[in-house]
Structure formats: structure tokens, C-alpha cells
Amino acid sequence: MRFSDIGERSLISRITELLGGLEHDDCAVIELDVDCLVVTTDMLHRETDFPAQATPWQIGWMSAAVNLSDIAAMGAEPLGVLIAAGIPPETDLGFVEEIFRGIRDCVKAHGTEVLGGDTDAHRELTICGTALGRASRERILRRRGARPGDLLCTTGSLGGAGAGLKALKIGRTDLARRLLEPRPRVREGIALARTGAVTAMMDNSDGLALSLHDLAEAGGTGFVVEYVHIPLADEVRAIAESDEEVLDMVLSAGGDFELLFTVREDMIDDVRGACEFTVIGRAVENGIWLNRNGIRVPIPRSGYEHGSQDEIRSRVHSHR
Fold first, then answer.
1. Which neighbouring-strand residues pair with 278?
2. Burial code of 253-291, b = ≥16 C-beta within 10 A, e = fewer?
3. In this structure, are 131 and 173 located in the same domain?
4. Cα dist. 238→77, 180, 231, 243, 280 in Å?
5. Fewer CB within a 10 Å sphere, N or C end of the chain?
6. Exposed, middle or buried, 313 (CB in 10 Å: 0-12/13-18/19+)?
7. Is 144 domain-assigned?
8. Residue 190: domain span
9. Reduced to 3 states, what is the DSSP secondary structure of residue 28?
């Protein structure tokens, strides 16, 4: 059996079992005296993570953004980022400098800095970021915690990155900014944590469907999403040609980097002042459902997973 036969999440489950039951959150949590240190790391590769149309500055921005989004999902304040880069020896120095300008600009825009890192020669451009954050032990947000009756919410709009993938295929780079320059919701994550009303949270970078399944598994619950309440990105409205294509962009494409969270219904007013968000459904006893035109249909576990055959086909060939 190969990695591609089981996909990223199944491999993670096997590794977790070997290592002794690690918790599935966006970040690892180290408890200190009063606060918690949260740590995350993410590895990105030229062929499977960066569209060919991405500028070196956008490659750098994306490399920092994916890590900062994990910090945001814990409701934590970012403390800094470490960057390890494997760079092909033939790479133009100006290209490399632009990558690190993109990294610098992203971390500065979100109130933190690059603390250091490592570089070496590598066959394929590979960037591994590690982000550190701090959160109050009482306010840190985990994937577990949702209970039936909680309201299901999302920041921002959905499907913009998925629409960007299609836009790049047809030469509409004007519609691809959400994909190429994702905006981690750091400020929103901190503000949501401070309300004390959020029961569970994660980012939806792998797509809404996969994130819902992850959130449900962590909390032992289910979810119903109301189709009419999904906040569609402008890019989706501009480029999608059918309702099915809209759903694919929203549910499966990934790359939006919004925060998906649950709130106790009796405390929803306490959250409204924290940031802009949309209530898209609620937690239920079991199952992951889409309520569309009064009919509930199951939402399959589909989204962006490294190593799967679908990921290899759709990401590599569409990006090159």
C-alpha cells in the first residue's frame, strides 16, 4: 500500500497512533503558566502548492499565510514565523529575494515578524514555515467543543479560491487574487476567542466539506449547512456556470482560509461585535448535511488532501 492509496488524513491517523494519540488541531498546544504556546508547521512545494501563474512575491505571501491561518484558528496572537527554504541552485537570485519579500510583507501585515530559519539546495522549490503564537489558557479555541444546537458560522465569503483555480485555467488572472494572496483571519480569530462564546473553531483551508468532517470528528457531533445562507465570494458569482460548480468551489476546492466556528445560540449577540461573519447552519447529533430547497443531502468527505490521486491529478495538471 502506498501513500497515494490512502491520502493525507489516513496517513496522519496512522502516524498519530504510532506517536501516541496527538490531538487533531490546527496547532500543537504547549501549556505554560497562564498562557499557552501554539505551534504549527506547513510545507509547500512548487509543483503541488503554487500555481504556475503565481509571482515569487505571491509564493512568499502564501507560504507565510498558511501558517498564520493556523494560528488564527486557535484564537492566538502570532509571535513570529520561522522559514526553512529548499531552493534549486539554478534559481535566479531576484526570484528568491521576491519570495522573501512576500513572506516579510505577509507577516508584517498580520502584526508579527520572521524570527529566522534555514536555507539549502533542493531539487524542487520547497518552503516550510513554522509559526508560533500565544493564547490565554481560558480562551484558546480547539476543534472539539461543538454541541448539538450550536450555530455554525464562517468569516468572510466562500469559494473565492476555488473560483480562482478555474480563472487561472481560462486566463482570468483578475479573478485569482483570493487564491494567490490568501488573507489569514488573525485579527478575527483573536477577537472571537475574547468573546468566550465560541465553542469550536478551525480554518477551512482544505475546503468547507473536509473541514466540517474534521470539526465533527473532533467534537463528536454533526452539522447541517443551509445552502441559501452560504456567503458566496464575488469570484464565484462571476465565473461559476451552474449550481453544481458553485457547490464544488465552496465545498471541495479549498484555499479560502476563512474561520469556521460554532457559537452557543444564546450567546450569538456577544459575538456580533467581534468581527463580520455569517451563520450558515447549526450543529446536530450526527451526519454532515446540506439543506437545499428543503431537502437534506449528505455532504461527502471531499477536499484538498496531499498525496491523494485526486490531488495529484487536479492540482499538478491544472497548475502547470
1. 154
2. bbbbbbbbbbbbeeebeebeebbebeebbbbbeeebbbe
3. no
4. 35, 17, 14, 13, 22
5. N
6. exposed
7. no
8. 151-319
9. strand
Q: Would the CA dihedral through 167, 54, 256, 110 be positive or negative? A: negative
* Main-chain dihedrals φ then ψ at residue 27, nearest 5 degrees: -135, 155
The pLDDT assigned to 1 comes to 80
**What are the pLDDT digits (tens) for 135-181?**
999 999 999 999 999 999 999 999 999 999 999 999 999 999 999 99
State the pLDDT at residue 313. Answer: 31
The C-alpha cell that represents 260 in the structure block:
469556521
Residues 51 and 198 in one domain: no
Q: Would you tell me the crossing angle of helices 243-251 and 160-169 to the nearest 10 degrees?
A: 110
Q: Is residue 3 part of a domain?
A: no
Q: What is the total count of domains within the chain?
A: 2
In one-letter notation, the amino acid at residue 63 is S
Domain identity same for 291 and 188: yes
Q: What does the alpha-carbon distance between residue 80 and residue 105 come to, in Å, rounded to a whole number?
A: 13
- Bridge partners of 45, per DSSP, are 126
Measured distance CA(305)–CA(296) in Å, rounded: 26
Which uninterrupted H or E stretch holds 271? helix 268-271
Whether 141 and 261 have beta carbons less than 8 Å apart is answered as yes
CA 13/CA 159 separation, integer angstroms = 28
From 136, 159, 192, give the residue that closes a domain: 136
CATH code, domain carrying 266 = 3.90.650.10
| 117/128 Cα distance (integer angstroms) | 9
Is the model's pLDDT at 306 over the cut of 90? Answer: no
